[in-house]
Specification:
- The protein has 317 residues and is of the alpha/beta class.
- It has two domains: 190 residues, Vaccinia Virus protein VP39 (Rossmann fold, 3-Layer(aba) Sandwich); 104 residues, Putative methyltransferase TM0872, insert domain (DNA polymerase, domain 1, Orthogonal Bundle).
- It has a seven-stranded mixed sheet with strand order 3-2-1-4-5-7-6, with helices on both faces.
- β2, α3 and β3 form a beta-alpha-beta unit.
- α8 crosses α9.
- The longest helix has 15 residues.
- It is globular and about 60 Å long.
Length: 317
């Protein structure tokens, strides 16, 4: 069996939440190097894997060889989950797992442009289509650029960073990752012993914007709700607060645990039945052994639920 170059986080907890069984069908919405997929396939279940990254194909070929007839890869983002499942011809979907964000495998590939620690083209696309990070930093005006960095990077100095980017691009366009990282670092006054690189939040913001990660997450959760059969399990692993807020709000609302209005402003009685029951309260985190072996797990959070037989919740108009 081919080893995975990327260790999936919270793998034991994810498999416990999904509880895959022989003959069941599961979706791995973030195939990557196939870590979750292999663990699910090893239980006897079948997997439909999704990934918009064309570079994962060699890993998919290896999985298909090791588990013939049990695995299919569909090149699509989260928003294509329903179509991928319907195209499989399967009668029911018993589980789905999402591992949100950029993988260490992508960060390690300098040519992808995700890392501020390795020089590469300023790209950041998980697929091979759409705007690049270079397109954004070279064309956005100050206001929209500062807003993007603040919103998606939670960067308090977004205005100062946007000013530095616009000033520099007047003489030379940005094309390389280390070039942008240096400009951001100087704009924030250098590292000064900071535990994280000053460009961390800016690079996160650009990556999220380039790939519409939060929009795709919301669309993927809705697609999973629509596609999972009653009793189907949904497990979602997040790595930063923006993602986790979306997932937490989704499960809180869909499980009927959203807070009501105050006595001064009561809300209309909710008639929709919960479409999920929570597998456990709150989020699960990595244990000490996993943290020692895989530092990437430090910020990981797992939330999970079980699909009820209630109708799909439609977004408010």
């Amino acid at each position: 069996m081919t080893a995975s170059p990327h260790a999936p986080v919270l793998i034991a907890e994810v498999i416990e939440a999904l509880s895959p069984k022989p003959g069941e069908t599961m979706i791995d919405a973030t195939f990557g190097a196939g870590g979750y997929t292999r663990a699910i396939l090893s239980t006897g279940a079948e997997v439909i894997a999704l990934d918009r990254d064309p570079t994962v194909q060699p890993h998919a070929d290896a999985v298909a060889k090791d588990f013939p007839g049990k695995f299919t890869l569909v090149r699509t983002p989260f928003s294509g989950l329903t179509e991928a499942f319907e195209g499989s011809g399967k009668a029911r979907l018993d589980g789905a797992v999402f591992d949100i964000g950029v993988s260490s495998m992508q960060l390690d590939q300098a040519e992808r442009g995700f890392s501020f620690m390795r020089d590469g083209p300023l790209d950041m696309r998980m697929s091979d289509q759409g705007l690049t990070a270079a397109d954004i930093v070279n064309t956005y005006e100050h206001g929209p650029l500062a807003h993007l960095i603040k919103l998606y990077g939670e960067e308090r100095q977004s205005g100062r960073i946007a000013t530095a980017i616009l000033r520099r691009r007047q003489s030379q366009a940005f094309t390389r990752t280390l070039d942008l990282a240096e400009v951001v670092e100087k704009a924030l006054g250098g590292r000064r012993g900071a535990p994280t690189h000053p460009a961390t939040r800016t690079f996160q913001a650009l990556r999220i914007a380039v790939n519409d990660e939060l929009g795709e997450l919301e669309a993927g959760l809705a697609a999973a709700e629509a596609s999972l059969s009653p009793g189907g399990r949904l497990a979602v692993v997040t790595f930063h607060s923006l993602e986790d807020r979306i997932v937490k709000a989704f499960f809180t609302e869909r499980s009927g645990n959203a807070p009501g209005g105050s006595r001064h402003a009561p809300v209309a009685v909710e008639t929709r039945k919960p479409s999920f029951t929570l597998l456990f309260k709150g989020a699960r985190e990595a244990g000490e052994d996993e943290l020692a072996a895989n530092p990437r797990a430090r910020s990981a959070r797992l939330r999970a639920g079980v699909r009820t037989d209630a109708p799909v919740w439609r977004a408010a108009a």
